[in-house]
Amino acid sequence: MQAVIIYLLIINFIAFVMIAKDFSSSMLGGPRFTNKQFLTVAILGGALSIILGCVMLKHMTKWYFLWPFLVVMIIQLMYKDYFIGVLYRLMN
């Protein structure tokens, strides 16, 4: 179970760093992450950090950007016991 918690902490940290990097790239004109990359990280467990990062940084807060991440997070919360069990079996 400890490995699952560490995994979720790491993936959420990565998700938040991706949003912060995308925010700074949008201001400076650098390369940006695609929505597909954000959605992949959200499906892997980082939906909450993506939503929190967008709200905290006031970056990409339009409903049409955030709704897929809200749906992913709701599904993950509904099936959290199943997802945690799958992750636990994969890591052991």
TrEMBL record:
The lineage of its organism: Bacteria, Bacillati, Bacillota, Bacilli, Bacillales. It comes from Cohnella abietis. The chain crosses the membrane at residues 6-26, 38-58, 64-88. It holds the Pfam family DUF1294. Keywords: Membrane, Transmembrane, Transmembrane helix. It comes from the Bacteria. This is DUF1294 domain-containing protein.
